[in-house]
Amino acid sequence: MRSPKPITGNRARRAHWRGRRMIMEYEVVIGMEIHAQLLTKSKLFCGCSTEFGAEPNSQCCPICLGFPGSLPMMNRKAVDHIITTALALNCTVARESIFARKNYFYPDLPKAYQISQDDQPLGEKGYLDIMDSSRRIRIRRIHLEEDAGKLVHTEGEPFSLVDYNRGGASLMEIVTEPDIRSAEEAAAYITELRSILRYIGVCDGNMEEGSLRCEPNISLRLRGAKEFGVKVELKNINSIRAVQRGVAYEVERQSQILNEGGTVIQETRRWDEANGVTISMRSKEEAHDYRYFPEADLVRVVVDNAWLNRMAAALPELPQARRERFIAAYGLPAYDAGVLTESKEIGDFFDKVAAISHDYKAVSNWIMGELMRLLNETGQSLEQTHMTPEVLAEIIALVDKGAINLKSAKEVFEESFRTGKAPSKIVADRGMTQISDEAALSGIIEDVIAANSKVAEDFQAGKEAALGFLVGQVMKETRGQANPAIVNKLLREKL
Asked: Which of 20, 24, 94, 168 could form a disulfide with 43 if both were Cys (CB 3.0 to 4.6 A apart)?
């Protein structure tokens, strides 16, 4: 079937009304498959490096290339990561688990099968709450498998290249029940899941590098119906924005077909970001198409109580629990708590600063404002900078006691961020100490009033805005070092 053109103009308006009818007639049903490359230094069944960005086909060996006679050996760290994830997502951890061969013939799979898990995955029957816990998405299963290689398509050439560096890497697949009901919920689910995976240290979540890939399965059914509609899979989407756009487009495409009396074809499609459309790739495989059978070269994984308890004890505070604690313990607004807990690194930093400085809202404002601005500008992680909890706490203290004003504090913050220099030394070296001495300011204020007598008269006549001009002149004369609150007070007294 030919893909629809991007929806614009009159067609967009018609689509809007079709969409309204769809909301009344159809229910959107979405299940999600997430493939997360695990943070292991070596591949799942061999010792080859998993470092990103190496020369093509430089991180391969007879095992991950499937040479005859080569035998796989399990990476225990990968199993640890699966157990940790299962616990974080409220899953039941299988005490015994086996591996299987999943057979399919793609050029990026040198063995012509993938070692995966079928009927005995490591994790089952969990859930993840999204949208401030108002929606619960059930997790069907979490299993471990080896990744395939990467096809490199050269524009204008009648062939593709294959890079096997990624082949054999430790890959975790997280499969939901069909509980997601909109493109917005799909994006919220991925956002929360990625945050959790980063918190527990099992995946870096770098979607642009392919370490987290999303495959939504989308179908429509008549509202109130129990039977699912025909599902369409979107393959390997590598950004949250693309997931939201791709799902929204596919919902519109399917609704258009159904409203026109057509039949949705079960197939796998890809998202074309440049053109904003989904494009058919192939018919969708069923489980029986893969001809699963047990992997005879790997032993059964047995998770005993000691192993499970060790993983549970190492589980960190998760994003949702941390958000709730930030609101309850620090009195932060829900918005602040949400921003500060998106990253474990930022959340940890806030906790450390809050242990020193108890002006929690000020700490939050500095982190969400200046710190995140500079991190975005420099492209650095927090640990790559010179900023420490002690430095930020000192800057907040200098502002609180009136030693520097807010403008100067921002300058001090940026210099400390870039150089590691102590805030007090920056203030001293630059002569930035705020002038709060009323006697010292009084003469300056009198001179400003005398030089701007007309503005002073305007203020006396009731023009409140004139005071702002006079304050600005005093700040100019003091190179921004005068305490604004005291300047305001003295001006009102003298006028």
From this structure: 168
The DSSP bridge partners found for residue 113 are: 103
Domain count, the chain: 3
Distances in whole angstroms, Cα of residue 12 to Cα of each of 1, 9, 280, 296: 21, 5, 22, 55
Is 220 within 8 Å of 258 (Cβ atoms)? Answer: yes
Tokens in use for 402? Answer: 């009136």
Whether the Cβ atoms of residue 135 and residue 185 lie closer than 8 Å to each other: yes
Of 251, 270, 305, the one marking the end of a domain is 305
Contact 326, 335 (CB under 8 A): no
| Token couple for 449 | 């009033």
Rg of the chain in Å (alpha carbons): 30
Match 């524009």 to its residue by tokens: 155
Residue 311 included in any domain:
no
Q: What percent of the chain has pLDDT over 90?
A: 67
Q: Give the closest residue to 397 by CA, choosing from 434, 358, 429, 365.
A: 358
Residues β-bridged to residue 30: 180, 218
Q: Is residue 310 part of a domain?
A: no
Residue 2 lies in a domain: no
Range of the domain at 408: 317-430
What integer pLDDT is reported at residue 17 of this predicted model?
42
326 & 414 share domain: yes
Q: What pLDDT score does 106 carry?
A: 81
Q: Note whether 92 and 82 are within 8 A (CB).
A: no
How far, in Å, are 60, 91, 276, 319 from residue 176 at the CA level?
32, 12, 26, 20
What's the rounded Cα separation, in Å, for the pair 247 and 185?
10
- Sorted by sequence, the CB contacts under 8 Å of residue 101 that are 6+ apart come out as 113, 114, 115, 116, 292, 293, 294, 295
- Please check whether residues 424 and 457 belong to one and the same domain: no
* Residue ranges of E strands in 60-169: 92-93, 96-97, 100-103, 113-116, 123-130, 135-146, 150-153, 160-163
Residue 175 falls inside a structural domain: yes
What does 50-82 look like in DSSP terms, one character per residue?
--TTPPTT-S--TTTTT-TT------HHHHHHH
Half-sphere exposure of 290 (CA within 13 A, CB side): 16
Buried/exposed 137-166: b ≥16 CB within 10 Å, e otherwise: bebbbbbbbbbbbbeeeeeeeeeeebbbbb
What average pLDDT does range 262-291 have in this prediction? 86
Tell me the C-alpha distance between 88 and 126, whole Å: 9
Q: Tell me the pLDDT band of 99, cut-offs 50, 70 and 90.
A: very high
pLDDT at position 284: 66
How far is it, in rounded angstroms, from Cα 468 to Cα 487?
10
